[in-house]
Design a protein that fits this description.
Helix content is about 60%, strand content about 15%. It is an alpha+beta fold. The chain has two domains: about 300 residues, no CATH class; about 70 residues, no CATH class. The longest helix is centred in the C-terminal third of the chain and has 76 residues. It is rod-shaped and about 135 Å long. The termini are far apart. About 25% of the residues are buried.
């Protein structure tokens, strides 16, 4: 038994079902698609497709190569019994269960024995891209490959896509011969499907990223900046998830290449072709990773530009409010001498009642003294204000337009300015 074995993980795996608060436990088993590779009388390999349960599978004879398309290795009332039977039938390590319990993004395991038997496994986890902000859908799958001492190979695909099933069903006979020679060739087909899934999600996210870029630039040119920052956060969050999935699967492929390289000398010559196929898949995932990095930088540029535009808009608002305050202050300054002089004089320059108690309007003969004092005093106050605040004068609209016109004439050096 492997040192990685931990019996307590069976309990944690069952806790997933209890945590889902399922109302009942289905005692029936799920029928799984089985693809047996058999040899005809002429020696040619051909796939034989069928559907069966785990209990029926244990009673049947095992061909040299078998593919099982099982439900996702996450227990549900419908699949719990089937998954448990498969784990026991093929001695699946508890480390495989633990990875699903912990929802790991990157994991690759390999265990071998002296009699030539081995098992290897990996998990895939990627965020599904949808338009909804509350999207909680994930692309999940697990793959367990084993070969026993009698050289019988089994690949169990937990939660595999329909495209992968179709791909395996359409493989030509020579590929099955390569898989019998080196079972790792089956994992190259799995990686090809995972590359397609990840690439599809990345392109799905590229559409909203491009739309946000276009909208932000258009808002800049129109000087009317409006952006939904919640939507921007949602896109950035999905991009982080995809970058994590890209890095994880790339590390998985690297570990597979290392494992294949270490064991190439002890296996058949077909391992060399498998190694080449794995390296090719590595380049494809590197390409996806580069695109994810590029999209990440594009989003960072959009975020930086958005914050700069917000800061610029806030600054313009502050300047406009500052100009309004200057206008209010100037208006107050103009009328301050008038109100001050009127208060100091304290005399009534206007009389609305005649001596005969009849309504009348009389202006005092000394009314000119009021203007003689307030006008010069107002001019003095404004002169002092302009002297200490000359920069505020240049902000006046008429003077500002005049200065801009003069500057334009100086640049053009037009005669008769």
């Amino acid at each position: 038994m492997s040192l990685l074995h931990d019996g307590s993980r069976y309990g944690a795996f069952k806790d997933l079902l209890e945590g889902s608060r399922a109302p009942f436990m289905d005692t029936n088993e799920v029928k799984m698609e089985i693809l047996d590779i058999i040899q005809t009388g002429t020696g040619q390999l051909m796939p034989l497709r069928g559907y069966t349960t785990a209990s029926e599978l244990a009673k049947e004879s095992h061909p040299n190569l078998r593919l099982i398309f099982a439900p996702l290795d996450y227990p549900t009332p419908a699949s719990s019994k089937t998954l448990t039977a498969l784990f026991q039938m093929f001695s699946v390590p508890t480390a495989f269960l633990s990875e699903r319990v912990q929802s790991v993004t990157h994991a690759f395991g390999f265990e071998g024995s002296k009699d030539g038997a081995f098992c290897t496994w990996l998990h895939f986890l990627c965020k599904a891209i949808e338009d909804k902000h509350d999207n909680i859908v994930w692309l999940r799958s697990g793959y367990f490959l084993t070969r026993d001492a009698q050289s019988r190979t089994t690949l169990i695909c937990f939660g595999a896509s329909a495209l992968l099933e179709k791909r395996f069903n359409s493989l030509p006979p020579e590929n099955w011969k390569d898989a019998l020679d080196d079972p790792f060739r089956l994992l190259t087909v799995v990686l090809s499907d995972l590359h397609f899934q990840l690439d599809e999600q990345l392109w799905a996210l590229n559409t909203p990223v491009g739309a946000v870029e276009e909208h932000t630039i258009a808002s800049t040119e129109a000087r009317n900046f409006k952006l939904n920052f919640v939507h921007l956060h949602y896109i950035a969050k999905n991009l982080i998830h995809l970058k994590e999935a890209s890095d994880a699967i790339l590390r998985t492929v690297q570990h597979m290449i290392e494992e294949q390289t270490e064991n190439t000398s002890s296996r058949s010559v077909g391992c060399g072709r498998t190694l080449s196929a794995l390296r090719y898949q590595q380049t494809l995932f590197e390409s996806i990773n580069l695109r994810a990095v590029s999209m990440e930088k594009r989003m960072q540029n959009v975020i930086n530009l958005s914050f700069n535009l917000v800061a610029q808009k806030d600054s313009s608002t502050i300047l406009a409010e500052s100009s309004s305050m200057h206008t209010i202050a100037l208006t107050t300054l103009i009328f301050l001498p008038i109100s001050t002089v009127a208060t100091i004089f304290g005399s009534q320059f206007f009389n609305f009642i005649d001596s005969d108690d009849r309504d009348a309007f009389h202006v005092a003969p000394q009314f000119w003294i009021f203007w003689a004092v307030t006008v010069p005093l107002t001019i003095v106050v404004l002169t002092i204000w302009i002297y200490f605040h000359p920069s505020n004068v240049s902000r006046w609209p008429l003077l500002k337009r005049s200065n801009q016109r003069d500057q334009a004439y100086r640049m053009l050096d037009l005669p008769g300015k």
